[in-house]
Amino acid sequence: xxxxxxxxxxxxxxxxxxxxxxxxxxxxxxxxxxxxxxxxxxxxxxxxxxxxxxxxxxxxxxxxxxxxxxxxxxxxxxxxx
Length: 81
Fold this sequence. Notes:
Layout: H1 4-11, H2 19-32, H3 35-41, H4 46-52, H5 61-70
């Protein structure tokens, strides 16, 4: 039996159309903190964080969630009605 949780974990990915939005997260981080401070707060190294938020980055969902959480945001998935 495939549970909803397993389906979500297997089907979530970050489409290319969201890449500019991910890059804009970098600007938001830099406006409110430094990459070094954020990297320490989410237990990542600074270079990895820059790569995650770059145009060529391929961030995992848990990375995006950690970054957003540290900046005071919450990632939510809603059912399309």
